[in-house]
Each structure stands twice: as C-alpha cells, then as structure tokens.
Amino acid sequence: MAGAGSMKRAASPARASISPPPVKRKIESTTTSKSVASFFTPASQKKPEKITWRILNNSLIIGRYSTDSVDKQPTEPGARRKIAAFDFDSTLIATASGNRFARDAKDWKWWHPTVPTRIKELNSEGFQIVVVSNQKKISLQKEIKGGRSESKSLTTFKEKASAVMRQLDVPLSLYAATQYDEYRKPRMGMWKELVEDYDLDVDNSLDLQSSFFVGDAAGRPGDHSCSDRDFAANIGITFKTPEEFFLGKPPEPVSRAFDPGVYIKEEASGPKPVTFEKRNPLDLVIFCGSPGAGKSTFYWKYLQPLGYERVNQDTLKTRQKCIKVAKEHLAAGRSVAVDNTNADPETRACWTEIAREHKIPIRVVYFTSPSELCRHNDAVRAANRDLNPESRALLPGIAFGDFTRRFRPPELSEGFQDITRVDFRFEGDEEAKKIWRQYWI
Questions:
Q1: Helix (H, G, I), strand (E, B) or coil at 124
Q2: Residues of the domain holding 304
Q3: Distance CA 62, CA 45 (A)
Q4: Domain of 134: which CATH number?
Q5: How many angstroms separate the CA atoms of 104 and 90, rounded?
Q6: Which of 55, 307, 361, 430 is placed for a possible disulfide with 417 were both Cys, Cβ 3.0 to 4.6 Å?
C-alpha cells in the first residue's frame, strides 16, 4: 500500500465555461479584538487570574479564588479575622446524579439552594471563606514522578472546584488533602497552612471564638466518620453539621469510635504503670500486642536497663533472622526480649521451643491496648518527630487488621513462666499530652 505522502486526489473534471467562477470561502477568525488587546498588554497591566492552583509537598492541593475587590479585612483598629470553614462534598455540594461519587466534573449541584446565598452573606459579614476537604481519590502520582500532565482525577477535581468557586464569586481558598498524612482531617495540617497563608499566626489576629467549621462527618448514626467534628475540636472552634448550619435543624446524637481524652481522664485515677523485674539469670521474654501498643517504649524503659537484648522484626526484617539473632544472644548468655507482635499461639510456639532448647524460662509481656487506641498511638508517633525516636513511618491499616484477625490472648498453658499484663497509661510531659489528646484518626 502506498504511503500517505504518495496519495493524490483525482483531478476534477474540466469546468464548463458557463459555470460561475468559484466563490472564495470566508475563513472565520477565532481571535477576538479583546484577545489581541490582551496579547499586546504589558504583563504589569494585565488582571491576574481569578483562580490559582498549587500543590504542597506532593500531597496538599491549594486553590485560591480572588475577586476584583480585595479580601475582607477588619476595618476597626485591633479587629481580628474570622474564619468560616466548610467541608466540600456533602456540605457545600452534592452529586447531581445521586451517586456517592461524582461521575465527572459537571456532576454536582448545591447541597441545598440556600448554600450560595449564605456563603455570600458570610463574606459580606467579614468572614474569610475557606474549604477544607479530604480527597483521597485524587492521584498526584504524575506530579510526584515529575510528569508534565495531570492525572485525570486531579483535572476533574480542579474543574469541578473551579466551577463552584466561580458561581460563589467571593474570595475563597480551598485546601484538599490527598494522602494519609499531617494534612488529612482530623489532623490540623490544612488549618495550619491556611493560617499561615492569611498571616493569621501573628499578633493574635485570628478570632477563634467567632470562627466555625461546617462538615458532614460528625459522628452521627450513619455518618462515615467523625473526622469533621474532631477537626473542629482539635482547632478549638465551633462545629455544625450542614443540616444545623444551613437548615437550622437541632443537633443529633453523637458517638465517637475513639476519644483520646477518656484515657487522659483515667490517668489520674487509674493504676500505677506496670514495671518489669528480672526473675531469672537467663531467660527469654516475648511481647504480645498490636502495633502501636507501646511495646518498644516498654522495652527501652524497663528491659533494656536490665540487660535484655532486643530482637525486633521491623529492624531485622524476617522472623528467621530474629530467631538466628536470638539464639546467638542466648548461646552467649544474654537474656533476650522479642519485641514483635506474636499475635497467635502458633507464632509464640516457635519461641517456647527455643526456650526449651536452651533450657531456660520464657515469659510474656501482654499489651492489652485495643486497635483504635493503637492506631491513634501510631498516628501520633508518625506525625511528631519528638515523640518518634525510632523515626517510624505511619503503618498501613492492614497491619492492625492482620493482628486483630490472628490475635489470641496468651495463656500460661502455652508454657510460659508468667504473663505480665500491661494496660495503656499515657506517660509524657504536658506538651506531649497536649499533642496526644488531639484527634488523629
């Protein structure tokens, strides 16, 4: 087959002399006088784009809509700024299709017809309007890898959010967290960023008492989480659901799956922290407990000073390597603490067999903390360098689910000399306590 470059259109038949001359087709120009004028306008004289976007730390999407007028500023001397913050989906907007997730950038409508009117009223009252949203379905992988093109999910979100901002037409900033990191609600990363963006972190210029946050994740029956209510609690501002704020409905009952404040309150009246005493010249101690239960902290505080060598699979990577290192320590006359989860009898049987081989006692330290508490501990640890001496990364949810699935409480009948039970008790200074009692999951 001949290449495209060799193909020629067949010649037209000779035109009859009585035919009129061909009419020259008029080409419509798509260039307007306005665009021509804009092209030749110096950059210093052009109006800035109303909507700008940036991505922070390959994680946080920030959009800003600016109107011709400047953002509202306090007019009275000493007046402070007020924030009116909103979740995005199921608070300001809903899907027009009725689907849980939008089909495309046009699949949206106002959550209620009063939403745009109420937002404009808040702007005229001097509130700075911000949107704070978790958007885990947005992929930033192309941006992370240095690609030039955006992911489809990011493009769709920006188109939808831009349409919403244009219809509201008030000065507004939008913050969207795409990862499970410090920006994701109920963690305060997005709030801290917007406070810095508006210079509200200086001279006590933010009026927290008058600021508020509206969101649908409120811990009510049927809500997917309590992250919006917890986010507002972390900041210290008033929280309302969309039904309460836009429709004037009364508050509904709230049930939190986990409240760290409960553990802080129990601290004063609870039992004293469990300690650990060495009972044998040479022995093997294994820990049993979920990730995030405080096993490593317990080792460094109580067993390391007693001369126990630590064996930890996070460090050694495989169980076989743990077994090898443990046997070497025991053969050299050094007691060993196995700082692993050891969730089930089958796993623990491996260590009881090693104890029998070396003719030494084996003991268990059993950490009883429930899964939600351990996930909280893990999140606090991963997000706060001062509370994370081993620089541990945030664990995936599967790590906790796998432990829960396999877990069976240790029993003396498995061959243990004794079982030391360790119930959670917060230990730390006031600054650490302030951080720990926030909502993180």
A1: helix
A2: 269-436
A3: 26
A4: 3.40.50.1000
A5: 16
A6: 361
Is residue 240 domain-shared with residue 282, that is, in the same domain? Answer: no
Q: pTM for the whole thing?
A: 0.81
Report how far residue 60's alpha carbon sits from residue 182's, in angstroms, rounded to the nearest whole number.
10
Q: Give the three-class secondary structure for 215.
A: coil
Same domain for 213 and 310, yes or no, is no
What element of type H or E holds 398?
helix 397-406
The rounded distance, in Å, linking the Cα atoms of 75 and 124 is 13
Structural domain total, the chain: 2
Same domain, 302 and 234: no
Residues 115 and 200 in one domain: yes
Does 311 map to a domain?
yes
Q: DSSP H helical segments within 169-258, as ranges?
A: 189-197, 227-235, 242-247
CA–CA separation, 271 vs 251, rounded Å?
A: 37
Compute mean pLDDT per 10 residues along the chain, 441 residues long, and list them: 41 42 42 45 61 96 84 60 97 95 95 98 97 95 60 95 97 96 95 95 90 98 95 98 98 92 73 85 98 95 97 94 98 98 98 98 97 95 87 90 97 98 90 94 92
